[in-house]
């Protein structure tokens, strides 16, 4: 089950993550969780204008909603420069790579 992180207090817990997974366009601090998978998305104005940021956010949410099994971790997906211009296929490959790194580190 996918739960979205929306409260500021939950985002503050990522200042001391259990581990960090890095890809070319994303930085993903992660915390171990007993509950279900929790996703926070952080996209700064450096990525592009509001249209670009919102499109990227929608694509990320859509990709995670299509996944059946997700590890039991809390993550904050932080977009880096260049993430806004990724095609759907490139984004999927990068998120697949990120998910493999999460599963390897979390032991799920």
Q: Provide the residue-averaged pLDDT.
A: 93
Q: Could you tell me how far the N terminus lies from the C terminus, measured between alpha carbons in angstroms? A: 15 Å
- What CATH calls the topology is Ribosomal Protein S5, domain 2
Helix count, DSSP H or I runs of 4 or more residues = 3
* Rg estimate, integer Å: 13 Å
For the secondary structure, the number of strands is 5
| Largest sheet features | 5 strands, mixed
Strand content: 25-35%
Describe this structure in words.
With 108 residues, the protein is an alpha/beta fold. Helix content is 37%, strand content 25%. It has helices at 8-12, 50-65, 88-106; strands at residues 2-4, 19-22, 26-32, 37-42, 73-79. A 5-stranded mixed sheet has the order 1-4-5-3-2, covered by helices on one side. The protein is globular. The model has no long low-confidence stretch (mean pLDDT 93).
């Amino acid at each position: 089950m996918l739960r979205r992180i929306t409260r500021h207090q939950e985002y503050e817990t990522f200042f001391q993550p259990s581990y960090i997974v890095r890809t070319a366009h994303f930085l993903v601090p992660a915390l171990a969780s007993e509950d279900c998978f929790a996703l926070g998305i952080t996209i700064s104005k450096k990525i592009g204008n509001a249209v670009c940021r919102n499109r990227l956010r929608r694509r990320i949410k859509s990709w995670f909603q299509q996944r059946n099994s997700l590890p039991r971790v809390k993550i904050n997906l932080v977009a880096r420069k260049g993430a806004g211009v990724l095609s759907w296929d490139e984004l999927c490959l990068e998120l697949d790579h990120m998910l493999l790194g999460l599963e390897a580190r979390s032991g799920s």
